[in-house]
Specification:
Length: 598
Amino acid sequence: TINTGIYLCKRKILRYIPGNSRQDFSSDIFPRLLQENFSMRGYVAQGYWCDIGSPSSYYTCIQDTLKGKIKDILNETTRQNLYKAGSGYYYQAPGVLREEDTVVTAGSVLSENCRLLRGSMVDGAVLFPDVTVGQDSRVDRSVLAKKVSLGKEVRVQEGVVMGENCEVEAYCSLPTGSSYQADTRIYFNGHRPFSDQREDLFDVDGIPIPLSTEEAVKVGRAVALAAEGDKIFIMRGSSGEEALLANEVSAGIMLAGKTAKWLGEGHYAMAVFAASTFRPSTLVFVTKDGNDKYKAILLDDCGLPLSNLARRRVENMYYTPFPDKPVGKSEQVEGCRELYLHSLVSMGKPLPGKTFYVSANQAGDYLSDAMTSLSANIRRGEPEKPDEMYLHISDDGRQFWFKKDECTADFDHIRGVILQEEAKRGIHSFSLPYLAPRIYDTLLSPFGATLYRYLSVAGENEQEARSLAAIQPAYRDGAAAAVTLIANFTEKDGFHENNLMKALTDLPPFQTVEEEYFPEGGDENKASLLARLSSAGGKGKEGIAFSTGNGFIAVTPRKNGFRIIAQSYSMEAAHELCTDMKGKIRGILGENENHKTP
């Protein structure tokens, strides 16, 4: 862009321009010349003109250029760097680095050497050279000058203007219409230096806690202050150290002015069940992992690990000085064990006269009690004879296997065995939750909701999907899966452990294929397409799902198209399901067979 003010003047007018002062042609010099009866003439230009004296008018000019309103201004080299996005274009200069899962919309300008890290989005923004947009960050219709650097998960709202060399720390949000001079450093909540690199509070499963009263109290207080409600539930493992740390976490919750509700002893799978049953603001499960490290696992009211947003709130509260609060209280919650056991029994079928050896640990005790309620003969510990059935449950309750070290049954195997048995009898009651959790609200699982969070573009409605996921929490539980699987085989023609062992041992991995499809009409046809497809499948707010004789298939919307997820017993069968679905979409939209998906 060029600011063009072209004036042809005679030399003698210089005597009418005062020295040592700022003078403007339009507001100072021209009015003075008119008073002196100078002759002035203008030329009316027929082309595009825009005064880019302000950031907003500069931005408008850029958008007009990309929309083609300015004729013959783009040379051939520039045109080669224009890319289609929806109904418009964006400009991407040579040397731009874009990592996976980045999104750039129409109206955006990515100048030389810009870097867009994984999961970031530039929505109609203008980036000068050498700008870095951090992981999962987003820039909306703003102007960022040279060498601006955005940290992880930064949100730049519409109309922001940033000068050169600005740095924005991770997790900051810049308000609409704000502006920042060159070399500005923007800190997260302004409470600590930009150069102070804090460690991540969470690991993969939760918050590691040393055997320290102070740290445990601090964790409890951070969790309570970050939670949106008053109900903070606590469950712990069975050791004395776990009890000690849980007591200190409870003290921290009360110091934050919240109520600590005690559930007593349990294991991970039981904590998942309790979270989805009692619907707490947050459930804190204090336990010891496989490396003998103590940690606080945080679950939401669906029994799922906290979302990234909720984790950031906890981290923020952990590293922020705590305000004084009236001390809260502690309450005991009764009946969790009984409800959990009842849920296991309800999944089973009578097993009169059947003898099982079950592992002697806390998680195995619940399986033993459930199967005893189903009239099975239970023996604790390993069998004396090698050919007798032995069911082992992991200490955390998340996994089970038959006979020691012989056949571990992970959830993919369980799902596959039950899928095959149901397919033979023409029913589908267990496997569907793993495919499309938003679709069948009576067959949802936390595992499915977790899958949905990573595969769907509907991030704004994440909480709804997570809430629906509470309907089948027990399927993350090895004891529940064992009872369900045994009941499935017992239903058919009696329980035969050899058949069950063979099915678990020989089952190939259940295959999932994910593909994308971008219709010629873009977003305009998305709503009508889903509406017409839903007549043949289950309709949900964010997509549809089908059950077929060969497996399952789901269609969910994404930017400018659809994500198609198919599950079947082989990769070939899953790919065939995806191909058939694309054919259905083409038929509805009237596209030809040669339509190519990028």
